[in-house]
Each structure stands twice: as structure tokens, then as C-alpha cells.
Specification:
heterodimer; A: MetI-like fold; 2 domains; 15 helices; about 0% strand; globular; B: alpha/beta; four-stranded mixed β-sheet; 19 helices; MetI-like (chain A); membrane (chain A); transport (chain A); cell membrane (chain A); transmembrane (chain A)
Chain lengths: ~300, ~550
């Protein structure tokens, strides 16, 4: 029964299948096939024997990472940075979309949208360069401003307490506009009759947002939230690595940068693979848990 | 509809055919190009990779190199790398797709030889084809020790450049500021403190603004060249090659200054300077370029009072260099009577391990060896380092040579050298018997090293860690590099915190315990074992 249904879909929707065929190939080629390299996390890397030839070590490299001196620091830093990014960064594009949606004049709205998208296209190295220039305690605009306010020499880039705020806020500034696109798209599907009905009932703007816009966004929000939980331990690498310096290292050393130092700089491929796989597993567990919770509570889910 | 699909599919098939067709043709082309080279006695084609300085001009434009390739009967296709070799190397070696020759400072490390076994050519059995290399091994036996792995194989050949001073770091103070303020040259840390306070509070550079002077600066972090770690010499610690990770030798013991009480004393002193506003507030966040450019000042106005560097003309620019004086080592305390020391870097400055390495897959190893032999000839060696005879070196005709000043008068000699040739990154041997007059930059380096000579009167056999001569096993090497990553993570952040905010005394004991946990104890045990073995053999 089930298999016949499947055969039917190939016959009936063959045009659709052909259309996504290249995408399937790409994902197979670049996402699934390389997964055989995961075994490197369980065996020694022996150049002369190739990727699969080293001695089988089981969970030894995972054990080494968990016993490692930096383990708790790495986990805490990675978790804190991603949590802050999610907690502060997740609602920001929703708010922005709701506000943009309130702009009545079409040209103005388009102008605003383009303006808030633009920072998304700044490359990370340039962005961190801008941060270095602007936030420099001696020569930067923000440094001068804080001196004028009598806050003294605070080097925002070189303090354990300001690293996360600088990281998260600059991230929101850069990506908030871009991420709001999907919410704006969801809002554009709201039936205009609902707005008319709300108006006739005498709803204020605030009440329109509360009872029309937000309910329309809920399914999108849930899906995106589940997806973001898959990144609970995924901080990205480049931006943190570029922002690191000895003074913020206690809070800025995360799994991604440590894997780089171990794997690429010290050539310890097996240990680095084990750490990477460990990180991915935790992300997957969070993603799965959130999906299950959401399925039970609201019947919206990824799978 | 069906027709369109067919068109689409045939399009894909054709594209695929075209792609495979192209790569197939490429392979054929390669093979046909290589085979006739040997048979007809024409030049042998080789591929080589060099990690060169970003300023260095393309290798095809170096006259001496053309002559060397001519003499060896080879034609080399160069791949020239100027940045991030450390990151590119791992992937290149892991893929096994390598050029015939690698040139550069420690371009392939001993650890790489151990990890990528079978990828590199053992040269020990081919040395009879390279008499110039054998001459180097005979005249400077240290080079042979550096080259030989623990199992007797030789994968990489070292360089020997003879002329460099015993230390990379020199200590500079702005003599003109001292004169402007009527102060004497400091000889102890306390006197240094007084001088730096005067630099800060008064208008030392005389431009009317008493607030634009930076009394003290370094590139950031702890350990390495041009770093305040040299002040540990004020209490008798002899650093080796800057001791980037803290290791040094004292009384036959391998130690690490990061957990030494004298280091704590130094951190306290630096914290005192920082609290008084005497250290550049951006010292831990600026990059090397900014560190260099700020010391160049503005026109005739110097900005930095006290700092470390290779040579004054490089550190401060030709215009400001005359304002600065090279200083002898300071005493930690006025009543300190122990020995004064410094960072002893003679071996790492004059010798370098693995400057040229051959791939085991090289098709014509004899030709590659001929090229290596030519590079190590004495007259070629000096041209590798200083540039071609003609534009860069004058041949006096009586067997003596002189390094010429830059053709462009605005360029400093150091930049000229790095622009013209492979310089220190090349593979070469300069015998002690070669009669070569050095350029003004090297004379300046040697002159500015003189004040440090008393502090550098160390016994290289006893007071210096022979890092370059010790070959670790792969396992020990991996353990040590992992531990060092952890130890330095803790050390860098603690040092930065203690200097800027203080607190070293309260946190010292727990810091020592943490360092041991991070693997310092294990590393010291490993290094001690190898050190003892090495000392017993020699």
C-alpha cells in the first residue's frame, strides 16, 4: 500500500522530482557522502593508511575531550553565547516585521526595508574591522563618546563582561532586517478582510497587531524557533575568532574556535572530529526535543 | 512536455560529457609534457612551493635563481605562498597532492614528517649527490644534528646564515626625551618607572601636548620576541628564542616561567605601570601593524618612549630612529646582585630547521638534488639571503663581496632585501670563510646589540633549551601541543587580566594549580626526559 503510493508520486509528479533532482544530488554529494569522514572521530588519523585506515579507538577521543581541562569553560561559553543570541536575537526580526508592516506608505516601506537589509551583506571580516575602529577605547567614536560621558577608559572589545553584548547586538544589527523578510512574507498572506473586520469592530492599531498579525505569525515563529534550537551550541566560527583577544578569551573561547586550534593548527584531526561530532549531537538532541514538545502542544512541527 | 524533459536531460548529459572530456584531456596533456624532458636531455621540469615574505617580488624576476636553475638543468614552476601557510599545509598534505620541493622556514615540521609518513623523501642516502650540503654538515656539525630525525633519516635540510646577533629583541628608549626632561638612562625597574612617569606627565616630545606620549608599548600577549618577558632576565632567567610558551632551562632543569615566582614579580611590576597609565591601553587588543605604525610617530614627533624591537630603523622608521638608544638589561632591584640575562636566540636566528624538503613522489629526484646542491654553494647562499650579484651584492673581484645599499634611496635596507630575494626564508649555507661586507642595516643590528652583550654572556650548552635539536616522538608531540594550547589559553588571559586589573597575588596559587591541570606538569616531564637524553648524548 505504502510503496504503491510512493510509486504513484514518482509517476504523477515526475516534473517536480526532476526539478529538485539537482538539489538532491548536491545534498547527497556535499552533505551525506562526506559523513563517512565521521569515523575519524572514532579512530586515529593515519596518513599512510588513508581516512579509514587508522587504528580503531572507540570513544577514546570523546573521553579525552570530556576530561579535558577546558571542557566546562568551552561548554559554558558556547552555550551562553548561543543562548544570548537566540533569546535576544530571535524576537528582534519579529518586532521589526510588525513595525515595518505598520508603515502605510508603500515607497517609505520599501525604502525602510532595503535600508535594514543592507548590513546583512557586509562581510564578517569588514564588520569586525568596523567594530575595532568604532569601539576602540582610544581612537573610536564610541570610546570618545564614553569618555565624554565620564565613563572613562572602557575597552568594549577587551573585557569579559562586554564581549557577549557586543557580539549579540552587532549580530542583531547585521541580520535583523534580513531575518524579518520571512515574517513580512507571512504577514502579507493575512486576509485583508480580517483587517477590515477589525477596523469595523473598532480595534486600535495595537489591538490589530495583538489579535490579527501575531496569530498569523505563530506557525512561522514556531518553525523558525525549532530550527534555531538546532543551533543551541552552534556559535559560528569566523566572527568569534576575529573578535578574540587575550582579555576576552575566558568568555570567547568556544567549541568552534577550539576545534580550529586543535584540528587545523595542531593537526589533531581525530580529536577535532570528535569534538565537532559531540557538538552536532547536542544540537540534534535539542532540535528533536523542541520539535517533540511543539508537536504535542501546538501540532506545528518540522517532522 | 515530454519533449522538453528530454531536451533537459540531454542537456545535462552533454554538459557532463563535456566536463569529463575536458579533465581527461588535461591529464593527457600533463603526461605528454613531462616525458620528453628527460629523454632529450632538455631541462627537467620541477614544481616547487615557497612560503615567502609578502614583500618579496615574483621568483621569476630573481636573476640569481635563473642562473641556479640553469646550472642545475631544471626549470621550476613556482607556487608562491605569502600567508596562512599553516592553515593551507594540513589540507595539502592530507590530500597527498604536493609539489616536488618545499622551501621556507620550517616549511614542513618534524611533526609533519611523523604524521605524513611516506610523503617525503629521505635525503640521507642521496647526500653524495650534494657535495655542498655535505660541506655544510662537516663544517657546521650542528646543522646535521638539526636535520637528522631520531631514526636517522633526513627529510629537511637546515639553513645557516652566520651573521645574525645572539638575540632578536633589543630594548629601546627615546634618548631625546630623556635629554629633554634632563633624566638619566634608567638602570633598574624603579628608575624605569620614574622615567616613564615623567614621559607621561610632561611634554616629553616637546610638541606642546603633554598627553600624546605613550610611555611603553609591546605587541601584546606574553612570551615571544619584543615582549616584556625579556625583563625576566633582570632576575636571571635566560629565555630561549623568546620562550613563546614559557619554557627555559636553569641548572639542568627544564622550567616554565609562567609558573615561576619571578614571573609573578614581573607581572606585579607591569600592573604597577599599567595602573599608572604608563602602558599603551590598547596593548592587548592592537595588531602588529598598529603596534608598528604608532611607534613611527608623526614626522619628527615620536610617540613611544620605551619598547622592544629588532632594530631602531625598522621599529621607529628612518626619521625617528636617531632619537632612540639601545639599552642594556635593567636590574630588577637596586640591590640585586645575581646575574642578568636576556633572550638567547642565536640558534633560531642563524640556523633554521627544514628549509628545503623534497616530496617522495618527485619523478626526477636526481635533478631536484642537483638544484638543492646549487642552492647550498657559498656564492649562491649569500645571493639567496641578500640578493643577486649586480643589483644587490658587489663582487670586488678578489674573492670578497659587499652588500650594496638599496637602489631606491627611500627604501630601508631590510625592506630592500626582503623585496629582492627569498632572504631568510630560503635554503642556503653561508660558510664562515666567505668574505662579505654587510649592509648598513645588519651593521646597525650588530651595533645596537652591543649594550646587551653582558646579559647575553650565557653558556649556550647549559643555559639554553636546545629546542631545535630535540626530536620528539609523534605521541609526545601531540600531547605537548594539546597541553600547550590549554596552558597558553589560561596564561594569555590571566596575564592580560593581571596586568590591566591586578589580582595576581590573590589568584597565584589557584593559577598554578590550574596550569598543572592544563598539562604543564606533564609537558615539563616530557621535555625534561628528552633534555636529559640530549645532554647525555652530547
Amino acid at each position: 500500500m505504502e510503496s504503491r503510493k510512493r510509486r504513484n508520486t514518482f509517476r504523477r509528479d515526475y516534473q517536480l522530482w526532476i526539478m529538485i533532482f539537482p538539489a538532491i544530488i548536491v545534498i547527497l554529494l556535499f552533505n551525506y557522502i562526506p559523513m563517512y569522514g565521521i569515523q575519524l572521530a572514532f579512530r586515529d588519523y593515519d596518513f599512510s593508511q588513508g581516512l579509514t585506515g587508522g587504528e580503531w579507538r572507540g570513544f577514546a577521543y570523546f573521553q579525552q575531550f570530556i576530561d579535558s581541562y577546558l571542557f566546562t569553560d568551552l561548554m559554558r561559553n558556547t552555550f551562553l553565547i548561543s543562548l544570548a543570541t537566540i533569546v535576544l536575537g530571535f524576537p528582534a526580526p519579529i518586532l521589526l516585521a510588525l513595525i515595518l508592516n505598520q508603515i502605510r506608505r508603500k515607497r517609505m516601506k520599501q525604502l525602510m526595508q532595503t535600508t535594514v537589509y543592507l548590513p546583512h551583506f557586509i562581510s564578517i571580516i569588514v564588520l569586525v574591522g568596523m567594530l575595532n575602529v568604532l569601539l576602540s577605547s582610544e581612537t573610536g567614536v564610541v570610546g570618545h563618546f564614553m569618555k565624554a560621558l565620564g565613563l572613562g577608559h572602557i575597552n568594549l572589545l577587551a573585557s569579559t563582561s562586554t564581549f557577549i553584548p557586543v557580539y549579540v547586538l552587532s549580530d542583531i544589527w547585521q541580520h535583523c532586517g534580513w531575518n524579518s523578510i520571512i515574517y513580512l512574507a507571512a504577514l502579507s498572506t493575512v486576509d485583508p478582510q480580517l483587517y477590515d473586520a477589525a477596523k469595523i469592530d473598532g480595534a486600535s492599531r495595537w489591538q490589530t497587531i495583538r489579535y490579527v498579525d501575531i496569530p498569523a505569525l505563530i506557525p512561522t515563529i514556531i518553525i523558525l524557533f525549532i530550527l534555531s534550537m538546532g543551533n543551541i551550541l552552534g556559535t559560528g566560527f569566523e566572527k568569534i575568532f576575529l573578535m578574540q583577544n587575550p582579555l576576552n578569551l575566558p568568555v570567547s573561547e568556544v567549541i568552534a574556535t577550539y576545534v580550529y586550534k586543535i584540528g587545523i593548527i595542531s593537526n589533531q584531526f581525530s580529536l577535532a572530529s570528535a569534538i565537532g561530532l559531540f557538538n552536532t549531537l547536542i544540537n540534534f538532541v535539542f532540535l528533536y526535543a523542541m520539535n517533540t514538545i511543539s508537536k504535542r502542544m501546538s501540532e506545528t512541527s518540522l517532522f | 512536455m515530454k519533449k522538453k524533459v528530454n531536451v533537459f536531460i540531454s542537456f545535462i548529459v552533454i554538459t557532463a560529457l563535456l566536463l569529463t572530456g575536458c579533465s581527461g584531456a588535461g591529464d593527457d596533456h600533463n603526461e605528454s609534457a613531462e616525458s620528453p624532458g628527460d629523454a632529450s636531455g632538455k631541462k627537467v621540469k620541477l614544481t616547487a612551493l615557497i612560503t615567502k615574505h609578502p614583500l618579496t617580488k615574483p621568483l621569476a624576476e630573481m636573476e640569481w635563481l635563473q642562473k641556479v636553475e640553469e646550472a642545475a638543468g631544471v626549470e621550476i614552476e613556482w607556487q608562491e605562498i605569502t600567508a596562512d601557510w599553516g592553515q593551507k599545509k594540513g589540507t595539502m598534505l592530507a590530500s597527498g597532492d604536493t609539489p616536488d620541493l618545499f622551501i621556507g622556514p620550517n616549511v614542513i615540521t618534524d611533526a609533519d614528517f611523523a604524521q605524513f609518513q611516506g610523503l617525503f623523501q629521505d635525503l640521507s642516502s642521496m647526500l653524495d649527490q650534494a657535495p655542498n650540503v655535505q660541506t655544510m654538515f662537516n663544517e657546521k656539525p650542528d646543522t646535521k644534528v638539526i636535520a637528522t630525525q631520531s631514526d636517522g633519516k633526513i627529510y629537511g635540510l637546515p639553513k645557516y646564515q652566520r651573521f645574525w646577533p645572539a638575540s632578536a629583541s633589543r630594548q629601546f628608549i627615546n634618548q631625546q626625551w630623556l635629554d629633554n626632561l634632563g633624566l638619566g638612562m634608567p638602570t633598574t625597574w624603579d628608575e624605569l618607572y620614574e622615567v616613564l612617569v615623567a614621559f607621561k606627565e610632561k611634554d616629553a616630545n616637546g610638541n606642546g601636548n603633554p598627553n600624546d606620549e605613550i610611555p611603553m608599548d609591546w605587541p601584546g600577549g606574553i612570551g615571544g620576541y619584543f615582549n616584556p618577558a625579556v625583563l625576566l632576565g633582570s632576575m636571571g632567567i635566560t629565555l630561549t628564542d623568546g620562550s613563546g610558551q614559557g619554557y627555559f632551562v636553569e641548572d639542568g632543569q627544564v622550567k616554565n616561567f609562567l609558573t615561576d615566582d619571578r614571573y609573578k614579580t614581573m607581572v606585579l611590576f607591569l600592573n604597577k605601570l599599567y595602573k599608572a597609565g604608563l602602558i599603551n591601553p590598547e596593548v592587548f587588543t592592537h595588531d602588529y601593524t598598529k603596534y608598528q605604525s604608532i611607534a613611527r610617530g608623526e614626522g619628527d614627533t615620536a610617540k613611544v618612549g620605551f619598547t622592544w624591537g629588532w632594530v631602531a630603523s625598522d621599529r621607529f622608521g628612518e626619521q625617528l630612529a636617531p632619537q632612540y638608544a639601545s639599552m642594556p638589561q635593567l636590574k630588577a632591584f637596586a640591590d640585586y646582585n645575581g646575574k642578568l640575562s636576556w633572550s638567547y636566540d642565536y640558534y633560531s636566528l642563524n640556523y633554521g630547521p627544514n628549509h628545503i624538503v623534497m616530496s617522495a613522489k618527485t619523478k626526477n629526484k636526481e635533478a631536484a638534488m642537483r638544484f638543492i646542491n646549487e642552492l647550498y654553494a657559498p656564492e649562491v647562499g649569500m645571493q639567496v639571503l641578500f640578493g643577486s650579484i649586480g643589483p644587490n651584492i658587489k663582487d670586488n673581484g678578489d674573492g670578497t663581496y659587499a652588500v650594496l645599499p638599496p637602489a631606491d634611496a627611500k627604501m630601508d635596507p631590510g625592506t630592500w632585501k626582503w623585496t629582492s630575494t627569498m632572504a631568510d626564508n630560503g635554503a642556503f649555507y653561508i660558510p664562515d670563510s666567505l668574505k662579505l661586507t654587510l649592509g648598513t642595516d645588519m651593521q646597525e643590528v650588530l651595533g645596537q646589540s652591543e649594550p646587551l652583550e653582558p646579559a647575553l654572556e650565557v653558556d649556550p650548552d647549559k643555559d639554553v633549551f636546545p629546542g631545535m635539536f630535540i626530536k620528539y616522538s609523534t605521541i609526545d608531540n601531540n600531547t605537548m601541543s594539546l597541553n600547550n594550547t590549554n596552558v597558553m589559553n589560561l596564561a594569555e588571559s590571566s596575564f592580560a587580566k593581571w596586568v590591566t586589573k591586578g589580582g595576581v597575588e590573590a589568584e597565584w596559587d589557584s593559577y598554578i594549580k590550574e596550569s598543572q591541570k592544563a598539562g604543564l606538569k606533564q609537558n615539563l616531564e616530557i621535555m625534561q626526559k628528552y633534555y636529559d637524553d640530549y645532554m647525555n648524548q652530547n
